[in-house]
Amino acid sequence: MKFDIDKNSLIINPYHSEGHIYVREQKGYWQKIRRGLSWFLMILFIAIPWLNYQGQQAFLLDIGAQHFRVFGMTFLPQDLMILAWLFMAAAFALFFVTNWLGRVWCGFICPQTIWMLMFTWVEHRVEGTRNQRIKLDKADWSAEKLAKKSIKHGAWLVIAFLTATTFMTYFIPARNLYVELFAGTWSGLTWFWVGLFTLCTYGNAGWLREKMCTVACPYARFQSVMFDKDTKLVTYDAARGENRGPRKRKANSGELGLGDCVDCNLCVEVCPAGIDIRNGLQYECINCGLCIDACNDTMSKFAYAPGLIRFSSENSMIGKISRAANLKRVGYASLTLLTLGVMVVWLNLRMPIEVSVIRDRNALFRVDYTGLVENPYTLSIINKTQQPLHYQLSVQGVTIKEFKAPEQILIEAGEMSLVPVTIIAEPWELAHKVTEIEFVINAIEDPTISIVKSSYFYRN
Predict the structure, then answer these.
(1) Band of the pLDDT at 313, cuts 50, 70, 90?
(2) Which part of the chain is the 4Fe-4S ferredoxin-type domain (predicted)?
(3) Domain total for the chain?
């Protein structure tokens, strides 16, 4: 159990429990921003799988076919370097934002927070206010309690199931998934993954809640490394608030020897993590701003200035100028832009075709009864576009007697084809036993798609 210390009486009060946290519902400026962002991200999460591009789902991570479709581009396992650069850019961007605005990601954008507060909103609608929920949980089981608990958990499971189904549309074509759902033809594998993600969402947002942030998520543990004296955090102005204590609304706090904090504890009751921000910076704080809105409501009732709890840096709190840019922040921003730049360059240089030349190591060459030298090859050609294409093959670097290869090779979108090729040449026309050659592969429909692969021609 944790204890919050009343600085006036020095009495230790067991206010904060490690058990279930009953969050009071709160409205205000920062909650409007958070809810607006939550709605935007939720709509984006649902809508992206339904976007079409060139007659296909624009964003699809097809694990079975081992290709990832992102609008006009198809990425194969060989292209996963782009994923590494993307994760690096996201990490540096997160470090930059953390150094600037603290754990604003956790409080306003993190899916765990969005779903946790969504489940809490359902709890408010079904079981009532914070005090009503505490009373309900302490009451003996009755038909009313059973009904409310059943409705709440049923609603949570419905939201979790819809969340899991929506998540699966990123891996299975959305239209197929829902058609099969209503037709009752989902495979066992689909039911397994939807069921697993449903239970994870239900457990994380409904039961674990803030424990996912404080125990499971490593970000809370190392975030302080990225903080400095210019980082904006949810901060309690102790110089203005202390000594804290209750008083009547029209009472003169100066005569009572009290600061602006009326010790209403609303900042604790609205906190999803159940902490008291007045005790200073704590790793459990997710910078959601709920305590700021609650405190500002109280300040307005007592005709005090808002901002007793506010987003502020350490330098601002002690009257120093808070720098908008410092070495750490500029470094994180530079690394973010650098990795994004590398991604753009990589994408521009990336060819929508991949070719490998495979030699038969048991027979590098053959000599037929007429004395001609044959070299067999197998070309592995991957079409990385989202349209079927015809390809033509040619060879350079050697005088060819005969070139045994298909005139045109049709390869479907995102598919690989193995093409056997044989080159036949006169041995006296080859100056060396090993001659470097080049295979040229061109797409007939799109002349810009062309690639050259080197190999060798052997003779006796």
Answers:
(1) very high
(2) 252-280
(3) 1
Q: What is the mean pLDDT of residues 106-126?
A: 96
| Position 446 in a domain | yes
**DSSP code per residue over 377-436:** EEEEEEE-SSS-EEEEEEEESS--SEEES-S-EEE-TT-EEEEEEEEEE-GGG-SSSEEE
- Whether 234 has a pLDDT exceeding 90, the answer reads yes
What gap in Å lies between CA 449 and CA 408, rounded to an integer?
15
The Cα angle at residue 339 between residues 84 and 233, in degrees rounded to 5: 100
Q: How much is the pLDDT for 322?
A: 85
pTM score, whole prediction: 0.86
Residue type, 325: A
Q: How many whole angstroms separate alpha carbon 302 and alpha carbon 305?
A: 9
Question: How many other CB atoms are found less than 10 A from the CB of residue 12?
Answer: 10
Supply the mean pLDDT for the chain.
91
Q: Residue 454: which CATH number?
A: 2.60.40.10
Residue 20 β-bridge partners: none
* Residue pointed to by tokens 């305590």: 291
Question: Residue 2's pLDDT is what?
Answer: 39
Structural domain of residue 424, as residue ranges? 353-458
